[in-house]
Amino acid sequence: MAGHASRAQTAPIDLGGALLLIAVLGAAVAVPYCNLVLPPSSPWHVEGWVVQLLGKYLCFALLAVSVDLIWGYCGILSLGHGAFFALGGYAMGMHLMREIGDRGVYGHSELPDFMVFLNWSELPWYWTGFDLFWLAALMVLAVPGLLAFVFGWLAFRSRVTGVYLSIMTQAMTYALMLAFFRNDMGFGGNNGLTDFKDLLGYDLQADATRAGLFAASALALVFGYLACRRLVTSTFGQVLIAIRDAESRTRFLGYRVEHYKLVAFVVSAMLAGVAGALYVPQVGIINPGEFSPANSIEIVVWVAVGGRGTLYGAAVGAVLVNYAKTYFTGAMPDVWLFFLGGLFVAVTVLLPRGLTGLFRGVRGPSAFGRGAAGG
Length: 375
Fold this sequence. Notes:
Blueprint: H1 2-9, H2 15-36, H3 48-74, H4 81-100, H5 113-117, H6 133-157, H7 162-180, E1 193-194, E2 198-199, E3 202-203, H8 207-232, H9 235-245, H10 247-252, H11 257-283, E4 285-286, H12 293-306, H13 312-331, H14 336-350, H15 355-363
């Protein structure tokens, strides 16, 4: 294992990852340019709503990469990663609500409109400080990371694995969904947080702000991919792969398996939180529906379709599936769920290594062997 680890530390970015980085970095420059500089009459002009939609796709791509880190390389199938995404979104939403100030419907400078409507007399203690962007940004990482640490510490120490762990993650996100639906939680209940005005003083409806958020999402995806790539090609990553392929044997060799799994799980949750934080100002709302277990299952479908154990495949799968979702929910809304289920079954049966498996098949076997896409 040591020999493989030493080679992995200097492993170059594979062709698929390089193409992803080039495409995302190119889009980070080209899309804002075409939106802000070119006149609307230009055939290359990109409308504001398109920029917003593409920004959502990039957030979903980062979320898919975070899931692939633990599923593709560590064998942890999380069916509750939507919870970390939603918590990051709520942390950003709380800051955006505080930024509204006295411009809300009720003109209250401290309390968000929904609290005024529900006759709250003062701001809850856990909202304190969210008027500061740096604190909100810290909470975007800290809250999902802390939940993942507590959950992972208890689950991994107890050696909960496989389908039992998947069910526990799904139960976690379902419990959070029910909690956030309650008005007395102080997060807007069923309606959630919405009617945001600006971010860092920039109007969220302005084209320049949307372009900036798109570029920020692109850079976050690049950073997230590179961070995960660095992690999985290091000695640490080789141990993760060994845990995925033979956990009992890896533990017998003296590795503290639960520690490796916990670190990967926390890093994955924090990346999901960042994706959620970038998603919220672009869509203008965050509500308990983001905690829905169905959303977490859909994330797994993205990764499976793209090809798990590749990182770049997960990002590609997220973009492709969400593009299909945008098309089918508009053209044939009654067909979408059937299409999604059929796609997952077809990929599982016919392309167990995902769409990128076709590409890897031409180039030769994966750098991590058969286990990268299997088991």
